[in-house]
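Me: Here is a favour to ask of a fellow structure person. Could you put it straight underneath, so I can go through it closely?

Assistant:
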Amino acid sequence: MYDASGNGLPWANVRLYNDFGFSAIKESEGPPQAPQAGKYEFTMGFDAGLFHVLVVDAAGQPLSEVIDVDYEPACSQRIDWQRVE
């Protein structure tokens, strides 16, 4: 996740889960100016399926809407969130 200037948001956590009990929360992969800042990687396996993604705070409480992702093995997904107030 990035701010409007393209800087990574190291405070942002992302939760990924599915309807079969898988759940993981990840923090950004680097400090704000690092190349990996704002990037999240999850190991999701070899089976296609529907996953749900949302931004959460440090306590795991939701900060965004849930986004559904149709996962296909060996693919990358990009989700662009925009903050609205």
Q: What stands out?
A: DSSP finds no helices and four strands in the chain. The two ends are 17 Å apart (CA to CA).
